[in-house]
Amino acid sequence: MIGPLNHVAIAVPDLAAAARLYRETLGATVSEPVAQPAHGVTVAFVTLPNTKIELLHPLGESSPIAAFLEKNPSGGIHHLCYEVDDILAARDRLRAQGARVLGDGEPKIGAHGKPVLFLHPKDFCGTLVELEQR
Ligand code: CO
Questions:
Q1: Fewest beta carbons less than 10 Å away: which of 11, 35, 68, 71?
Q2: What is the CA angle 111-69-77, rounded to 5?
Q3: Interval between CA 54 and ligand 1 midpoint (Å)
Q4: Long-range CB contacts (< 8 A, 24+ apart) of 61-69?
Q5: Of 54, 83, 130, 132, which is the active-site residue?
Q6: pTM exceeds 0.85
């Protein structure tokens, strides 16, 4: 059911330092920071030949990654995003198998302008999983 890995998201305490690390030390192409107030994050996109890395930094008071960074002060992998052909069919299939979909279960428009859903990390090997409509 799942298709390509769309991105790996890494929460970082210092976005400029993380962007520099990927650009200068690892030699990757990194975007300028993009504020996404609707998601409570500022993101820098690292483009790799086969996928993307998203460097996430909290934005605003109620950022969904603030608590994660409190627990992981030097940063860490926050979620993986897999593409699916039909996000509603994927949701229904997962629910029928007992997986928990976060929030109200309705897809929201994600960082790339496409519908996304998040799945409970306890149901997926301790990893927060994002599904994105292809
Ligand atoms: Co994501």
A1: 71
A2: 60
A3: 7
A4: 64/39, 64/40, 65/11, 65/40, 65/41, 68/11, 69/11, 69/13
A5: 130
A6: yes
Q: Is residue 70 annotated as a catalytic residue, yes or no?
A: no
- Which H or E run includes 69? helix 66-71
Asked if the model's pLDDT at residue 124 lies above 90, the reply is yes
Q: Are 58 and 69 in contact (CB under 8 A)?
A: yes
Distance CA 112, CA 72 (A): 26
Ligand 1 centroid–CA 127 distance in Å is: 12
Report DSSP state, residue 39: G
Q: Measured in angstroms, how far is the CA atom of residue 81 from the centroid of ligand 1?
A: 6
The CATH number fitting domain 2-133, selected from 3.20.20.70, 3.10.180.10, 3.30.1490.20, 2.70.70.10: 3.10.180.10
DSSP 118: E
Ligand 1 center–CA 6 separation, angstroms: 8
